[in-house]
């Protein structure tokens, strides 16, 4: 049986509209109330990314249909795979471990395409890591316009996104630049916008990841992973620190997909280091840290966490 949260998000990629949705995200009184919460591990501040926007406006960015890891255990790697990996370090950051191979923060703009951004970015990073050299950014637009199992700017799921990367593959961002930022996906094309050949790179494997330790082992050995989580209103005002929702927050705003690049500990609090797709004028220059080991906002179970290994040999490239 599917969980209540799964059914809710399958019904719509965004949570229901609330009467308070017309509230401005950068409302100073609201931000002051967030910073006055006792024992909070993070700070809120007005976000340039959301200047003049309401919570209704921002809710459209949450375009991920979440499902629990328990529904995807048959899609995980065998336990022996992770058992063979030695203990992981206490802290790890893919940005320093594989310097200049991790692709930069991007902005999905006003399209619910987080599912496409984070999955394509994970594969982009893993291609570069496997090749041990910088690689082109892969195109989220390809997925938004051409992945028929998902719903473009209206949402998508992590398993379906990785199915597309494995079975169809994806072109470069220069071949198919992002143009769905206004909220409408253009028609799928089979011709590059530039002079390069229409060549798809694909994942040779795609799998769910069960458990915090396995998530860490996967990041340390192969690179960033994709995760999904439930977004609460306070998250939109995150500026710095280790994020966790506040106790008074009840109903989430929607589902969001992002890329975990590492983990660490701050003042005794374990956290994930996560790349968002809301541009560099949000959070910690586009990144955020979230409490680790507590399934905060469903981050360790509700995506479910997903990744894949790249197919990088010449015969792995599909020319259409």
**Helical content (DSSP H or I, runs of 4+):** 10-25%
The CATH H-level superfamily is: Cysteine proteinases
Total DSSP helices:
9
Judged by helices, strands and strand pairing, the structural class is alpha+beta
CATH class: Alpha Beta
How far do the termini sit from each other? 40 Å
Mean pLDDT: 91
Number of strands: 11
Low-confidence stretches: 1-19
One letter per element, helices H and strands E, the order comes to HHEHHEHHHHEEHEEEEEEE
Shape category: globular
Strand content: 15-25%
Rounded to the nearest angstrom, the radius of gyration is 19 Å
Q: What summary fits the major beta sheet?
A: 7 strands, mixed
The total domain count is 1
Corresponding CATH architecture? Alpha-Beta Complex
CATH topology group: Cathepsin B, Chain A
Kindly describe this structure:
It is a single chain. This protein is α+β, with helices and mostly antiparallel strands and 320 residues long. The protein has a single domain (4-319), classed as Alpha-Beta Complex (Cathepsin B, Chain A), CATH 3.90.70.10. Helices cover 24% and strands 16% of the residues. It contains nine helices and eleven strands. The chain has helices at residues 4-11, 28-35, 55-59, 79-83, 94-97, 114-131, 140-146, 158-167, 212-222, and strands spanning 42-44, 92-93, 199-200, 207-208, 225-231, 238-243, 254-266, 269-275, 287-291, 306-307, 318-319. The strands form three sheets. Strands 1, 2, 5, 6, 7, 8 and 9 form a seven-stranded mixed beta sheet that branches. A two-stranded antiparallel sheet has the order 3-11. Strands 4-10 form a two-stranded antiparallel ribbon. It is globular, with a radius of gyration of 19 Å. 47% of the residues are buried. The model is unreliable at 1-19 (pLDDT under 50).
